[in-house]
Amino acid sequence: MQENKKTTAPNPSVAAEGEQSQVKTDNEIVAGLWEESNAFDEEPAESSDSMLEEMERMSDPAYLPTVSMNELYERVYEGRPPIIDGLLYAGTYLFVGAPKVGKSFLMAQLAYHVSTGQPFWGYPVRQGTVLYLALEDDYRRLQERMFRMFGVESTPNLHFAIDAKQIGTGLYDQLRKFVKEHANTKLVIIDTLQKVREAGSEKYSYASDYEIVGQLKRFAQGLGLCLLLVHHTRKQQADDAFDMISGTNGLLGAADGAFMLQKEKRTEGKATLEIAGRDQPEQKLYLLKDHQRLTWELERAEAELWKAPPDPILEMVVRLMADRSEWNGSPTELVESLEVEMKPNALTRHLNVKASELKTEHKILYDNKPRHRGRRISLTKMAVEG
Questions:
Q1: Would you report the helix, strand and coil content of the chain in percent, each value rounded to 5?
Q2: pLDDT score, position 189
Q3: Partner residues linked to 21 by β-bridges
Q4: Is residue 235 helix, strand or coil?
Q5: How far apart are CA 376 and CA 281, in angstroms?
Q6: What is the phi-psi region of residue 374: left when phi exceeds 0, alpha when psi lies from -120 to 50, beta otherwise?
Q7: Inter-residue contact 381 to 363 (CB < 8 Å)
Q8: Cβ–Cβ < 8 Å for 96, 231
């Protein structure tokens, strides 16, 4: 059966020091195959044959786990909403600028807004706990900085540390423990990347740069948070601002995106913030420094943020759930309830892809599970706090 091959591309898990295992153990894979085969077939004997055949394939040293396009659409992948709409997403990002250009002040501002949930330059923020590793500061300087920027309006959701272990000597364990103790952690700022790199030669290769950010990226993915790495630019100028990142292109190549803060003159109160990434459109923001509060304010954006058009299918689901807290039924019954001209399998594939948006934007949980007599869909309206 085609469906019985769904576990041939196992989901990675996070191991010690942030590394991910790329494949599951044989026992995990066999257990998954048995569970899914029993879910689809009422005759265990047929499932057992398929399972044994799959085990033989996986025992081949040349076995390559793959997922077909059909299987890809049949799955629901957990998505993560933006931390700041249009600006910052879960993943690993570089925040780059020349020394003393104002990076740490902008990091403190960003950390405060995420930890309080207040809009950042007018962009909506999803509130969460923030850990700021201010590894080039001390607590007295942080106290004065935060007081000048935000007065006495403090928050228990913003945590600072001025010392941390390095990658390879315990940093991942420290971060993992913090996140375990603060389950709503959304953002970790490491200021600076150089402070947590392993001690060694000052000259790094493309491979070593790519590997170090790759490790951090796998770690952030495993915990579902945003890791923001503060880093410096090199002195040489370049036509592309991101070519000025100190080190090799391996840093940017492995990261999910980068922010570049630049001034034409160090004494100016103006700066530009260029943004490039996989999850957001490239853009350029023009900033003004509030010299009294030491905060950066948005003067203008070079282009309006792109917004996805409304999804008619999701709007139909929202209307269906308007006067109920739960809906259960088959894909065919859902087509009938929505009164939409779609084949049941096309509808479920659409909702599989849009499940995260349905949850984040419309507070409706979507579940699509196989049963002995076919698939069963459930829609559940989430409780809204406050």
A1: 40, 25, 40
A2: 98
A3: 13
A4: coil
A5: 37
A6: left
A7: yes
A8: yes
Residue 352 amino acid letter: N
Return the DSSP state at 244: G
Instruction: Read off the tokens for 294.
Output: 């030491």
Contacting residues for 11 by C-beta, under 8 A, at least 6 apart: 24
AA letter at 58: M
Q: How far apart are CA 117 and CA 109, in angstroms?
A: 12
Residues 246 and 86: their CA atoms lie apart, in Å, by 26
What does the pLDDT look like over 94-116, one tens digit per residue?
A: 999 888 889 999 999 999 999 99
Half-sphere exposure (Cβ direction) of 125: Cα atoms closer than 13 Å: 20
pLDDT per residue rounded down to tens, the chain (386 residues): 444 444 444 444 444 444 444 444 444 444 444 444 343 333 344 467 778 888 888 888 899 999 999 999 999 988 888 899 889 999 999 999 888 889 999 999 999 999 999 999 999 999 999 999 999 999 999 999 999 999 999 999 999 999 999 998 999 999 999 999 999 999 999 999 999 987 654 556 888 888 999 999 999 999 999 999 999 876 666 656 666 676 667 787 889 999 999 987 777 889 999 998 887 778 999 999 998 999 999 999 987 776 778 999 999 999 999 999 999 999 999 999 999 999 999 999 999 999 999 998 899 999 998 877 778 999 999 986 54
Spatial CA neighbour of 96 closest among 267, 215, 213: 213
Taking the CB of residue 59, how many other CB atoms lie within 10 A of it? 9
> What long-range pairs does 194-201 form, CB within 8 A, spacing at least 24?
194/231, 194/232, 195/133, 195/135, 195/136, 195/164, 195/166, 196/133, 196/135, 196/164, 196/165, 196/166, 196/167, 196/171, 197/166, 197/167, 198/166, 198/167, 198/168, 198/169, 199/166
- Record the pTM: 0.77
Check residue 2 and report its DSSP letter. G
Alpha-carbon distance of 294 to 102, in angstroms, equals 9
**CB neighbourhood size of 107 (10 A):** 19
